[in-house]
Amino acid sequence: MAGSVNNLLILFLVFQNICLGFRSPLSVFKRYEDTTRSLSSQCLGSDRPVISLGLSDFALDIRMPGVTPKQSDTYLCMSVPLPVDDEAYVVDFKPYASMDTVHHMLLFGCNEPSSTENYWDCDEGTCKDKSNILYAWARNAPPTRLPKGVGFRVGGETGGRYFVLQVHYGDISAFRDKHKDCSGVTLHLTHQKQPLIAGMYLMMSVNTVIPPGEKVVDADIACHYKRFPMHLFAYRVHTHRLGKVVSGYRVRNGQWTLIGRQSPQLPQAFYPVEHPVDVSYDDILAARCVFSGEGRTTETHIGGTANDEMCNFYIMYYMEAKHAVSYMTCTQNANPEMFRNIPQEANIPIPVKSDMLKMAHGHHEETKDTDKSSLLHQAKKEEEEILDQDFHIEEVVEWPGLDLKLGQVSGLALDPENNLVVFHRGDHVWDENSFDSKFVYQQRGLGPIEQNTVLVLNPSNAKLLHSMGKSLFYLPHGLSVDKNGNYWVTDVALHQVFKLGPDKKEPLLILGVAMQPGSDRSHFCQPTDVAVDPITGSVYVSDGYCNSRIIQFSPSGLYVMQWGEGTETSSGKAKPGQFRIPHSLALIPDFSQLCVADRENGRIQCFRLETGEFLRDIKHESFGREVFAISYVPGGLLFAVNGMPYPGEAEAVQGFVMNFSTGEIMDTFIPLRKRFEMPHDVIASEDKTVFVGDVHARAVWKFASTEKMEHRSVKKAGIEVQEIKESETVVEARLKNSPESTDPVKKQEKQHLVGQASTGVSFVLITTLLIIPVVVLLAILVFIRWRKTTVYGADGEHKLDSSSGRILGRLRGKGGGGLNLGNFFASHKGYSRKGFDRLSTEGSDQEKDEDDGTDSEEECSAPPPPPAPSSS
């Protein structure tokens, strides 16, 4: 009897340890708790922001670490890492904030916060990479509630690994007693897979213009929905001060169903959808913002400052996990005619009481238009995010353009037919012998370039379609194509700007004096780039390597105005409007802005087109010291390339994809073939196809979003691909000569079912492999018990107890305080410990896996020394 009890005890202890090993919150969070920042006792009841809620659930407390804002309208941010490596799901939010001190809170998810400090001023940004809003709280607004079975996916291979909390402190009169604030939110997370995954759909107008004094102006957005069904449960509206009402609808078979309607002057949190709304394939999502231009004396455009406007309608939805898409956007009006039938309620402003208006916008009066610093301060506070469609930019490795025989590639552009235009230097090279100290070209005796310097290529197969520019240029540099297909180019040796017709041998317009550098209205000094306004035809020239200015000309080439000055080297920090080589231009017609790659200052500066007024700059540590080129895509994406790092610096040379409205980095990219040496220009199209030209590598790379590349690989497999361009590219796949269903939704469902089956088989296999050693161990113990009882009689029972004690002692390990299968198996020669101690209940934070060093050493290996900086 005693032997049976002993065996049952062993069995109980073994399986207890298995359960704890699979999901013990204490063991999972032990290392996290030891490294987490300690929070003020006023913020938390304990110093543990992670609280176990059972075997699979836990709570994560995200609180301000005891802060006292110094002035009203202060925005403070702090970050908390996800305490687990594997996938988890946020299923609930519990806010901790007082309406007396906090105006609103936003919670973002991302992979790299903008700062590593305990907290920071949100002027520095929220995240360095792409970020998305998970939660919003505003005073006098209901908190976000997720339906049962719905969760935001975080961690793992695709989810964000950090939470960033942004708190807006409106009126700081409540802080007269100097108390410390610990506002924040507690998240309820679980490791249990959720059947429904939450996501965000952003509808945003990008080209609305509000005339001064106009009483009613509508901004309409509409896109066809081309994905699996989604269910809408919350919405949020956002405009600036001219917005009167924002409404969102689902349109199905001509019937308009209200998603939500709200005044943007009320607290801008997420409001629940009153009546459940589902969206199916081929439905239309539509939204309207109603503005009034009364009181304004100039046109108001969509933009990021307080004097600009925004028209955003956020939709929080959930989808079945197997079909889930985390983020989607709509930035166009696919069917303007349909808005004739929009319900009348969409045009009726929602009255807002004056006290509610103050609470929605902060504590005091509107900012005066003349206070520019205040406007810029408010612009940086805008929490709006252009939520991307979960894409990543990668090189198109099958594109043959990389093998073209080119000279130094200085400029790239896309013509009206979306063909790629390349501007290169043929057999000429810009080196240290090209110019004297007065910037006069010294190699005039070589004559002009005898090759065609302007090449027009098919963007799909790199075949040459057209070429020109022979015997015209000495050192090509910048390139732009206007809406009529004319080429605008600069030559740094000639110090001139040219307008070339696509079928003309002689230039249509020449600005500047050949071979004569200068700084007056009729001379340039190594001009770098040109941009042409598609609406007005105005011409903007960045001038240049030896001047530091932007010059505006009329369409016929008459001087209009200029702005900019050189950077004072003594001050150490460049001021707004100062340049150190304005190297590349990007015209932003959506926002009526001109952005400049301020190369040697490592930043992007943006100005108002009409006046040259500085609006803001974009600068990130990952840019390094140089930003070479920029390109804007309508809809809110800004692309850029930087320069090689200086010796001893670590910033990689790479491409960047940024949210133009916020300036935050959404993605980075590098080539797979060859490597960037000095990427000199970048151009992007609306479908996220990107071309990069390198002046040292003498090459042009093609990049595309992973969505698009996946579509191309499907086509190679014998599947027809049809792209429907609404708000996004949609694939309809039909197997050739196949009797099976042509429904793309059904086909993808089958693929997901196969994936689920594979996951189930993997889980069963792993579980079986873990249980087999336990069963074998128990069999050995039972055999020993039976054998010794048979051979030794009564003495055998005592010897068995001793043997069992030794085995249990080894199972307990060094601590002797509990069963530890990780240490037990690790003690056997040849058995890998990797991954096992992480699941054990003790000792996991005291020993380092032997394999860890190899992986990290490989990832952190130093790159080859970069070449010295060049003026090319």
UniProtKB/TrEMBL annotation:
Residues 61-172 form the Copper type II ascorbate-dependent monooxygenase N-terminal domain. It holds the Pfam family Cu2_monooxygen. The chain crosses the membrane at residues 760-784. Glycans are attached at N659. Residues 847-860 have a biased composition (Acidic residues). The keyword Transport does not apply. A protein binds at R425, Y545, R599. GO terms for cellular component: extracellular region; transport vesicle membrane. One of its GO terms (biological process) is peptide amidation. Cu(2+) binds at H103, H104, H168, H238, H240, M310. NHL repeats lie at residues 465-503, 511-556, 566-610. InterPro entries: 6-blade_b-propeller_TolB-like, Cu2_ascorb_mOase-like_C, Cu2_ascorb_mOase_CS-1, Cu2_ascorb_mOase_CS-2, Cu2_ascorb_mOase_N, Cu2_ascorb_mOase_N_sf, Cu2_monoox_C, NHL_repeat. It is a single-pass membrane protein. Residues 862-872 have a biased composition (Pro residues). It is found in: Cytoplasmic vesicle, Secretory vesicle membrane. Residues 834-872 are annotated as: Disordered. Binds 2 Cu(2+) ions per subunit. Binds one Zn(2+) ion per subunit. Ca(2+) binds at L412, L479, D681. Its main location: membrane. It comes from the Eukaryota. Residues 197-342 form the Copper type II ascorbate-dependent monooxygenase C-terminal domain. Residues 1-21 form the signal peptide. In the N-terminal section; belongs to the copper type II ascorbate-dependent monooxygenase family. In the C-terminal section; belongs to the peptidyl-alpha-hydroxyglycine alpha-amidating lyase family. PANTHER family: PEPTIDYL-GLYCINE ALPHA-AMIDATING MONOOXYGENASE. This is Peptidylglycine alpha-amidating monooxygenase.
